[in-house]
Amino acid sequence: SQQGEEDPQALSIQEGENATMNCSYKTSINNLQWYRQNSGRGLVHLILIRSNEREKHSGRLRVTLDTSKKSSSLLITASRAADTASYFCATVPMTTDSWGKFQFGAGTQVVVTP
Amino acid sequence: EAGVAQSPRYKIIEKRQSVAFWCNPISGHATLYWYQQILGQGPKLLIQFQNNGVVDDSQLPKDRFSAERLKGVDSTLKIQPAKLEDSAVYLCASSLAGQLSSYEQYFGPGTRLTVT
């Protein structure tokens, strides 16, 4: 079963608009990471947020984490056509034995039209 | 720095045939992962190595899938015999060693397998 569930499944916006997607998870986590996947390519790491952090920024990306609600959001500001991709959240559960055990959600497909 | 290398990029086989995928991680990365990504889904972890030891293979269908990481560097993933439902992209990733996976993973381009 997938720990992280992204919402929405698909998002279509125009260049310059902001894109927001959410990730919900079920068990306590050590950290949560967001990845981007362009069509036919491997995943690229975007940002990591630890369980004791609430917000992180990286360029046009802003990630929030609410551990009480077990949810995270990824905001892409001033989107560009090159941001067209699938975005995945990956969680690492907080257990006594947490080697790896990355769990990816099904992803949000974002299409940015010029 | 060179990224994670995978080969082949594409493979088409008939069901019941066997296939092998190869991965070369980033130099110095002790942790190596194999994922299966079915179209429209997120990657599913199949197996994780720490150096040449298996850390997690709980989702690896061991009756048909096998993987090894000789000398703690390159790795191969084999499917024998293949089934139609094995059609997917097989992704290899690597990261610096670390418990609780605090480190980001670097992914290769993947191998797209089609089983007919």
Cα-to-Cα separation, first versus last residue of chain A: 36 Å
How much of the sequence of chain A is in beta strands? over 45%
Proportion in β-strands of chain B: over 45%
Largest sheet of chain B: 7 strands, mixed
Low-confidence stretches of chain B: none
Seen as an oligomer or otherwise, the chain set is: heterodimer
- Could you tell me the radius of gyration of chain B in angstroms? 13 Å
Q: Greatest chain-chain interface?
A: A-B, 27 and 28 residues
Q: How does the helix and strand content of chain B classify structurally?
A: mainly beta
Overall structural class of chain A, as computed from helix and strand content, comes to: mainly beta
Identify low-pLDDT runs of chain A: none
Number of helices of chain A: 0
SSE succession of chain B: EEEEEEEEEEE
Roughly how many Å apart are the termini of chain B?
37 Å
Helix proportion of residues of chain B, in percent? under 10%
Which sequence of SSEs, written as H and E, runs from N to C of chain A?
EEEEEEEEEEE
| Rounded Rg of chain A | 14 Å
What is the β-strand count of chain B? 11
Q: Characterize the overall form of chain A.
A: globular
Total strand count of chain A, please?
A: 11
Main sheet overview of chain A: 6 strands, mixed
Short description:
The complex is a heterodimer of chains A (114) and B (116). Chain A is an all-beta fold and 114 residues long.
